[in-house]
Specification:
homodimer; five-stranded mixed β-sheet; about 20% strand
Chain lengths: ~325, ~325
Amino acid sequence: MSTTLDGAQAAGTVIGVDLGGTRLKAGRVEASGQIAERTVVSVGERRTEDAIVALIAETAQALDPEGLAPIGIAVAGVIEAATATVRESPNFPAWKDFRLADRILSATGRHVHLENDANAAIFGEAQAGAGRGAPSCIGLTLGTGVGGALVLGGELWRGERGMAGELGHMTVVPEGRPCGCGNRGCLERYAGALGIAETMRAAADPGADWREAAEDRDGAVAWLAGEAARGRPEAVDVFEGVGRALGQAIAGLVHALDVRRVVLTGGVSRAFPHFAPAMEAEVSARMFRSMREGVVITPGTLGDDAALVGASVLARRRAGG
Amino acid sequence: MSTTLDGAQAAGTVIGVDLGGTRLKAGRVEASGQIAERTVVSVGERRTEDAIVALIAETAQALDPEGLAPIGIAVAGVIEAATATVRESPNFPAWKDFRLADRILSATGRHVHLENDANAAIFGEAQAGAGRGAPSCIGLTLGTGVGGALVLGGELWRGERGMAGELGHMTVVPEGRPCGCGNRGCLERYAGALGIAETMRAAADPGADWREAAEDRDGAVAWLAGEAARGRPEAVDVFEGVGRALGQAIAGLVHALDVRRVVLTGGVSRAFPHFAPAMEAEVSARMFRSMREGVVITPGTLGDDAALVGASVLARRRAGG
């Protein structure tokens, strides 16, 4: 036993951190992917590079007081995983080429793996959630917009510049709705929460409750799912459109990649039962039967823990555990 | 020096074979990717498994009489590269789970790498042609239909079942032309030679010469390129449509994969100057500017030798050269 091979490390314990714009979630994660202990702290005014290094160091120390367990950190933004640098982050606009891992290693002696949050969440699902056991995984994050990530042969495919996985900006309607990316008819304009609310507003008026719900940016999809569950035809129609858009995009991705496991995460994925039938039918209608066979499309199972767990698995791998 | 480390192998010489339905093309390929000597033989009636093994053995012996240079073989069909088995081939319908590499190793002592022909052609372009020097490459084969292959981080991505790269069956027109794969609006129905001839037949009638050319399955696209070169507006319009379909599909693939080199091969790619402007404009209109930057879309440079060269590079790699 050496001082660095303490109990925590020998057991493969690592710290997973999901650093959001308002709060930091962290957990001590076992080799099984189970979170043994967790903590959530408010980021508040602690937004400078120095303050974040201190916050992560304190949090790791609290979760693993005796050891030097490595830390996996998920952050939104343009991340260069190889050098563990935050090139830019929408939540921390003052950061610029922040070498977060080097700084934490210097401050704590702990090794760090840094990953984009969407990549980390899908990797978590692929390794310890809905994709467990599958060699590869296509992940779509259905949130306000739509993001994604690709796990190919057990590894994240990050692309040449770390920008791979912009699956929400594949075109599904060539002359469709304008998108902030410059394109028209992007998947996210039909299957993200903002796009679904727009579909609701474009529907032939089904009443005042509908109009009001369509203006509720954060609650529209959950409300709509409730209406669909009660069989309201206009709500059922909206989710059919969501399913068709997703099915078309997924069919194209599976034709390109021959990956059989597709995992859907994010808030909109909670409406899975409502859009799944149209999605499955669209995938079947748009694919070679031989390639469609065996394709499983499933909601994620890790919920809000996915990015934390994924970052921890990446940190464990980097540590050779 | 051992008997297996003869001059040819020490110099990294390998044999590349492109086995088509009517003829077998083969070449002795140097480590640079240059073809030092080539041969073409008619397959004719020699279509049984035994006859093909004998034909390949003779051809390799003629190109490399003294040595045991490994052989890379490209064949159309469902190929299991890991076990070098032809599961099925459209050109040789009597074959079934033909373990071609094992048979040739037994007959000749030469090691064999077997690859699907579209994969081999794009890999050849990626390693020794238009993609040389690029870490990754998206390849589209614009022939009668449209196929493709993906080279990610220097390796062919074959998918979970060896079926990846069906890029011609990504949807570009959601309610578009029916396709043999079961889908509607597949890329190949707009950018493959058969699809282009259909676009010609659907055009408001521009004359008897046009109508006749549109019925010439093998010559329609070359004829149309000649007309576009002379500035005939209807021909220019058809190629604009080809370019837009390709651009939409390429934008989606680059958003998904963040790969910056795209290589177009096959007969239709000879009309590159006619469809490239619309294709480039479509890619720019449909992508995040930061991801679009640095994306180079280029015709292949190896022509009909691409599959032969690609198979040879795969064989050299497998031999550790």
